[in-house]
Specification:
By secondary structure, the chain is α+β, with helices and mostly antiparallel strands. The chain is built from seven helices and ten strands. The protein has two domains: 138 residues, Sandwich (Jelly Rolls), CATH 2.60.120; 96 residues, Arc Repressor Mutant, subunit A.
Length: 247
């Protein structure tokens, strides 16, 4: 039985500090599949080698043979995958795409998917769909040798699972609140409070998925700084479109 198939491939270890994964998504069934994409603080470059599909809850068309840049998301979005879908993506870790490309003001493409001129030679030609090794070689040549000091701020947020305030984050990283705000907008396109919320919600969802039978949602709610079960449920539904019991 042919089904929609999503796969991830690890980048070269030399790139892994900046690239989370290469991924592919194919769909060969006769029906149109709906996918929900959640915010993760990352930015993606997507190449469409197959059928035209829709994203941003139907408002953005990904045309066959085109390349797209996906800005940092602050809300979940729906994607329609028709038969013949064949996408290839590069998911850059938060505040990392600038190590390879310059796309102007990052905050201007937050929550948007925009068509771009492909930085690669294949640009949607199915006859020359690249391998992971091709991407490793190309991106390895483009990667800036300069260290991105702001990555330390991102790593603190992730290590804390989002259980840190903006004020605490600024103090921990020895940076003023104004500088922190400016740097976040420059590097990720979103505000620090939004990024922290994304990390916390994703960590809470992971805890819900893996919870033991004797662990209650109230316990998880309190572990992640929510007031109670209802507060957790409301925030998770706002973030993912689903209630905790449906995760």
């Amino acid at each position: 039985m042919k089904v929609m198939l999503y796969r991830e491939y690890a980048p070269d270890p030399l790139l892994s500090a900046h690239i989370d994964a290469y991924w592919t998504l194919t769909h060969t069934q006769e029906d149109v599949q709906q996918q929900i994409i959640l915010p993760d603080g990352c930015m993606d470059i997507i190449f469409n080698f197959g059928a035209t599909c829709k994203t941003s809850s139907g408002s953005q068309t990904l045309q066959q043979g085109r390349t797209y840049l996906v800005g940092t998301m602050t809300r979940f979005t729906g994607t329609e995958m028709p038969p013949g879908t064949d996408l290839l993506g590069i998911r850059f870790r938060p505040a990392s795409i600038q190590q390879f490309f310059s796309f102007g003001t990052i905050c201007e493409i937050t929550d948007q998917t925009i068509g771009i001129q492909s930085p690669f030679d294949f640009d949607g030609d199915p006859r020359s769909k690249p391998s992971s090794q091709f991407l490793n070689n190309f991106l390895g040549r483009r990667m800036s040798s300069s260290r991105n000091e702001f990555r330390q701020v991102i790593d603190v947020c992730i290590a804390a699972r989002g259980l840190i305030s903006v004020k605490q984050l600024a103090a921990h990283c020895c940076i003023s609140l104004r500088q922190l705000e400016r740097k976040f907008l420059q590097q990720t396109g979103i505000h620090p409070k939004q990024f922290i919320s994304i990390i916390r919600n994703r960590a809470a969802m992971a805890a819900i998925k893996s919870k033991k039978a004797d662990t209650t949602l109230l316990e998880i709610a309190l572990d992640f700084g929510f007031y109670d079960h209802a507060h957790l449920s409301n925030e998770i539904k706002k973030f993912s479109g689903r209630v905790p019991s449906a995760i």
